Amino acid sequence: MTDSPTVPHRLTFGWEEWIALPGLGLPAISAKIDTGARTSALHAYDIELFGPASAPKVRFSVHPIPGHDDLAIPCSAPVIDRREVTSSNGEAELRYVITTALEVAGQSWPIEITLTNRAGMASRMLLGRQALTDHISILPTERHLQPVLNYDVYHSARMRQAAPKRDLRIAVLSREDNYSTRRLVEAGEARGHTVEVIDTTRCYMAINALAPEIHYDGKRLPRYDAVIPRIGASVTQYGTAVIRQFETIGTYCVNGSAGITASRDKLQAHQVLARHKIGMPMTAFASSPKDTGNLIGLVGGAPLIVKLLESTQGKGVVLAETKKAAESVISAFRGLRANFLVQHFVKEAAGEDVRCLVIGGKVVAAMKRKGAEGDFRSNLHQGGQASVTRISREERDIAVRAARAFGLNMAGVDLLRSDDGPKVLEVNSSPGFEGIEAATGKDLIGRLYDEIEHRARPRPAPRRKSPR
Fold first, then answer.
1. Is residue 367 part of a domain?
2. How many angstroms separate the CA atoms of 410 and 404, rounded?
3. Which of 138, 147, 272, 455 shows the greatest Cβ crowding within 10 Å of its Cβ?
């Protein structure tokens, strides 16, 4: 049993006082005292129920500063009740009830709050009798008898740092019930978030300028605080269209549509790396069969790699050890009208590469992958083995730069260790977590949620220019 909060001294309130609701991320709000009301009321809009029916939560947004609707603070809290409340003009409304801590003059105690839209009211909050405990006396002719707070706090960098973690509603775009998807759900729910897996191909979109929407199984999808794309290579085009729709709505997407599209197209991906002066194996591309000889020469001759532009998990990647073998493979791919590129074979890598997992602009883990016996490919899906490895400062830097070049907040950057430094082999926008978590023993999905929670916190509001 927890002890009841102690009250060090009595407080006197006027008819209006400055208070803080730190648990909701509201460090300053001016509240009207109303002894005629039992329960306090907070201005809220976009009120939406989420979470399991056994433990429902509500999320909502608050404009804490009257007349300053460009500042919105997103909040969430468990629902403790739903009550019918009759306003002073006699209108009855069914409202969600939450509980949070009220803070005044260094003292704090829990209060119940109903959520309602008070946009037309002068005060964004009303304090009722339940919040006015025995240690508070009221002087109805006075105003602001307690320390005056300041709305400037919403414009400061401290606003983001002090914002509390809140329960989020998160969508995982995935068609697969695999380790990564299950871990994303389990780890998110363990943190109190509601995580829903959505089959990307079952989404459909209403595209218009005023109210763009995403629908799923006959219903409009709710607002999500964040979307984690796990888009398979076979549905890249449609999957990125769905992500663009989430971006249009204003949802935070861990990886954006442009970065996923660029990383999936191997030709475009290498052009992005080249534009940012990021080291990679010498690569060449041509369309005409007359250019085969020159194409082979551009990458230093055989042995070389021939790689389909749409290849994934090591499939569609061929090692041609001689010039004749290279010509045969290139001729076969052209006969299938397949798009491909050729690449210098980094022999000294000896069938090994390094997977660096980058989250939020930092390398959070790295593993070395070695191909199965007799296989130059190091992909774990092709029988490769993984082990933890230490990476150099240069390797760490190039991995971060590569993820940044594509605008990816989460990426698996594959490096080859060559005689003249690390070379980026591929940037994966939907990296798997099973192999690298097993190899390193780290809770890497937890690191991803740290980044999502940080991004979901309110940003300081821009200051309004004073009228001349």
1. no
2. 10
3. 272
Same domain, 135 and 40: yes
Q: Provide the residue range defining the domain that includes 123.
A: 11-162
Q: How many CB atoms lie within 10 A of CB 27?
A: 22
What are 381's two structure tokens? 């899906």
Structure token pair of residue 158: 């401290």
Residue 51 shares a structural domain with residue 157: yes
Encoded amino acid at 235, one letter = V
C-alpha to C-alpha distance for 51 and 196, rounded to whole angstroms: 10
Cα–Cα distance measured from residue 73 to residue 21, given in angstroms and rounded to the nearest whole number: 12
HSE toward the beta carbon, residue 127, CA cutoff 13 A? 26
* Nearest in space to 196 (alpha carbons), one of 184, 212, 206, 204: 184
Q: Are residues 149 and 44 in the same domain?
A: yes
Is residue 15 within 8 A of residue 33, CB to CB? The reply is yes
Task: Return the SS3 of 213.
Answer: strand
**Residue 453 is inside which H or E element, if any?**
helix 444-456
pLDDT at position 1 over 50: no
Question: What does the block give as tokens for 377?
Answer: 């490919």
Write out the two tokens for 72: 């919105």
150 and 187 assigned to the same domain: no
d(CA 113, CA 373): 65
Q: Are residues 206 and 252 in the same domain?
A: yes
Within 8 A by CB and 6+ apart from 300, the residues are 282, 344
Alpha carbon distance 24, 100 (integer Å): 8
Q: 320 and 244: one domain?
A: no
Q: For the residues of 274-332, what is the DSSP string, one character each? A: HHTT-----EE--S-GGGHHHHHHHTTSSSEEEEETT--TTTTEEEE-SHHHHHHHHHH
Q: Is residue 93 part of a domain?
A: yes
Domain count, the chain: 3
**pLDDT tens-digit series, residues 101-124:** 999 998 999 999 999 998 878 889
Question: What is the rounded average pLDDT of the residues 1-22?
Answer: 77
Half-sphere exposure of 298 (CA within 13 A, CB side): 15
Query: What is the DSSP code (8-state) at residue 392?
Result: -
Integer Cα distance of 245 and 229 in angstroms:
13
**What's the CATH number where 33 sits?**
2.40.70.10
Whether residue 39 is found in the same domain as residue 145: yes
User: What proportion of the chain, given as a percentage, has pLDDT over 70?
Assistant: 91
Question: In this structure, are 140 and 187 located in the same domain?
Answer: no
Whether the Cβ atoms of residue 112 and residue 80 lie closer than 8 Å to each other: yes
Q: Give the pLDDT confidence of 344-356 residue by residue, as tens digits.
A: 998 888 788 999 9
Nearest-Å Rg of the Cα atoms of the chain is 28
Question: Counting Cβ atoms within 10 Å, is residue 91 exposed (0-12), middle (13-18) or buried (19+)?
Answer: exposed
The domain boundary, picked from 115, 142, 162, lies at: 162
**Boundary (domain end) residue, out of 162, 187, 214:** 162
Residue 243 in domain: yes
